[in-house]
């Protein structure tokens, strides 16, 4: 009888202790985001010099939204990769799904509210070395799904960013500064692009939030 009472008491105590909530599932994200230390090493290795705008940049010099597979182009591929429960039609267009924009923390259920952001904007790439690339390399850069170059984000936020570097624009969510800086650095490092001194200072500060 005593053992039964003790067992019952222990069970009652255990049931009264609140169980921790399960950890939220990680949100989808582009591949290749480096660690803080790797990003810092890559940042230190980048060439620092003034940006050079030769006035010849045109967006169509970076052919983008190329076919990835089947009927899916790069935009459609990223929408499906970075969304949750995304349903597509026979043309690979997203007809439903949920997208979380890490730049501003907004969640969208219509693909039309989502832009695919180039982490390092095409014009920024042009003025930091891509003006000397071949069309093939610029096409690769504009459609790169193997580095953290392409992000599904709120359309208005992407438009506010435009072609600005981190010293001139940062994502609204300060909690995303770390990931943003790591992604920006590794894309520039992967393609041998230069950075300005102001850009390096901003990236250094952002990496210090990691």
List keywords for this structure.
single chain, 210 residues, alpha+beta, 8 helices, 7 strands, globular
Percent range for β-strand residues = 5-15%
**Alpha carbon gap, first and last residue:** 57 Å
Using DSSP, what is the number of strands? 7
Q: State the share of residues found in helices, binned by percent.
A: 25-40%
Number of helices in the DSSP assignment: 8
Shape, please? globular
Structural class: alpha+beta
Rounded to an integer in angstroms, the radius of gyration calculated over CA atoms is 22 Å
Main β-sheet, in a few words?
Answer: 3 strands, antiparallel
Strand order of the largest sheet: 3-4-5
Average pLDDT reading: 90
Order of helices and strands: HHEEHEEEEHHEHHH
Low-confidence stretches: 1-25
Domain GmrSD restriction endonucleases C-terminal: 109-204
Keywords: Signal
InterPro entries: GmrSD_C
Signal peptide: 1-16
Report on the structure:
Strand 3 and strand 4 form a beta hairpin. Helix 2 packs across helix 7, helix 2 (36-45) runs antiparallel to helix 8 (197-207) and helix 7 (177-191) packs across helix 8 (197-207). The protein is an alpha+beta fold. The chain is globular, with a radius of gyration of 22 Å. The strands form three sheets. The protein has a three-stranded antiparallel β-sheet with strand order 3-4-5, covered by helices on one side. A two-stranded antiparallel ribbon has the order 1-2. Strands 6-7 form a two-stranded antiparallel sheet. It has eight helices and seven strands; from the N terminus they run ααββαββββααβααα. The chain has a domain at 30-65 and 119-207.
């Amino acid at each position: 009888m005593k053992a039964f009472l003790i067992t019952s008491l222990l069970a009652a105590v255990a049931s009264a202790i609140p169980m921790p909530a399960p950890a939220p599932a990680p949100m989808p994200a582009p591949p290749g985001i480096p660690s803080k230390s790797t990003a810092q090493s890559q940042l230190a290795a980048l060439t620092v010099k003034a940006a050079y705008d030769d006035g010849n940049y045109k967006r169509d010099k970076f052919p983008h939204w190329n076919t990835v597979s089947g009927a899916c182009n790069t935009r459609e591929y990223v929408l499906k990769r970075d969304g949750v429960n995304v349903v597509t039609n026979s043309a690979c267009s997203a007809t439903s799904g949920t997208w979380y924009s890490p730049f501003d923390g907004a969640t969208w259920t219509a693909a039309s509210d989502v832009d695919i952001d180039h982490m390092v904007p095409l014009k920024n790439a042009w003025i930091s070395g891509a003006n000397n690339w071949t069309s093939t390399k610029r096409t690769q850069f504009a459609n790169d799904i193997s580095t953290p170059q392409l992000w599904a984000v709120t359309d208005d936020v992407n438009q506010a960013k435009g072609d600005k570097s981190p010293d001139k624009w940062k994502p609204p969510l300060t909690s995303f500064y770390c990931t943003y800086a790591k992604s920006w650095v590794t894309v520039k490092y992967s393609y041998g692009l230069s950075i300005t001194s102001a850009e390096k200072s901003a990236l250094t500060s952002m990496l210090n939030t990691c």
